[in-house]
Amino acid sequence: MKENKRLVITIGRQYGSGGREIGARLAKDLGLGFYDKNILRLNSDESGIKESFYHMADEKAGNKLLYRIVKSLAPELGTPSLGPDLIAADNLFRFQSEVIRKLAAEEDCVIIGRCADYVLDGFDGLVKVYLYADMDYRVERIKELGYYEPKDVKKNIKRIDRERRDYHRYYTGRDWENVENYDLMLNTARLGTEGAVEAVKGYLRLRGYEI
Q1: With bands split at pLDDT 50, 70 and 90, how would you rate the model's confidence at 93?
Q2: SS3 of 150, please?
Q3: What is the pLDDT of residue 156?
Q4: Hey, where are the domains in the chain?
Q5: Rounded distance between C-alpha atoms, residue 110 and residue 28, angstroms
Q6: What's the confidence (pLDDT) of residue 19?
Q7: How far apart are CA 137 and CA 134, in angstroms?
Q8: Of 61, 176, 167, nearest to 117 (Cα)?
Q9: 88 Rama sector, left if φ>0, alpha if ψ -120 to 50, beta otherwise
Q10: What CA–CA distance (Å, rounded) separates 102 from 85?
Q11: Which percentage of the chain shows pLDDT scores above 90?
Q12: From CA 11, how far away is CA 39, in angstroms rounded?
């Protein structure tokens, strides 16, 4: 890639479309940081929640950056509360958003989900990708992973898609699947993992990145 040209790729994805796998492959191929659930993995124990931030960041991030960012957050004006309402859903979103903004400011990276496309709107070097796939393709992928009984796979795909759609609308006021939210939308059932990775790379070349 061109020196000093920023790049932060956000990936929205339907459940079962292969978003995490594709994002991880992109990050590896391009030498970028990769952030998914390691941004915010919490339990519901209020007394231990701050410690779980630190444990998550130190063990899962793969580098010291996420740990340092999380540890440095303080209850200042406009930042998340670290008080009694720490685990309130809206405060967790603020906390997560603050982490995402700081990560993007510190390094080029790939960020999966977490409304990062909205949180980083207007950020220099932002590339917003959305991955979707035919239902039959997604059902087969989730069956192979063995997360659910075969008869329950389709209903769980629909449930998780609905949860992601509602979450995105609640925190952004936007339609999760609206084409206007993204720079690139890909059907992974047509491309597969390798094809989707190459399609994103091709788009980046058109945007002026030397990869």
Answers
A1: confident
A2: helix
A3: 96
A4: 8-191
A5: 10
A6: 95
A7: 5
A8: 176
A9: beta
A10: 22
A11: 58
A12: 14
Phi and psi, residue 33, nearest 5°? -70, 155
Phi-psi label, residue 62: left if phi above 0, alpha if psi -120 to 50, beta otherwise: left
b/e per residue 194-205 (b: at least 16 CB within 10 A): eebbebbeebbe
Residue pair 19/113 in contact by the 8 Å Cβ criterion: yes
Backbone angles phi, psi at 130, to 5 degrees: -130, 130
Torsion of the alpha carbons at 168, 174, 176 and 181, rounded to the nearest 10 = -120
Which of 62, 84, 63, 86 shows the shortest CA–CA distance to 73?
A: 86
Half-sphere exposure for 164 (CA within 13 Å, toward CB)? 21
Contact status, residue 14 vs residue 160, Cβ threshold 8 Å: no
Q: How confident is the model at residue 194 (pLDDT cuts 50, 70, 90)?
A: very high
- Domain 8-191 listed as CATH 1.25.40.10: no
pTM of the complete model: 0.79
Tokens 């796939």 sit on residue:
133
Assigned token pair, 32: 């970028």
Q: Which of the 8 DSSP states describes residue 18?
A: -
d(CA 65, CA 104): 11
Per the CB < 8 A criterion, the answer to whether 150 and 128 are in contact is no
**Sequence-separated contacts (24+) of 171-178 with Cβ below 8 Å:** 171/93, 171/115, 171/118, 172/115, 172/118, 174/118, 176/12, 177/130, 177/132
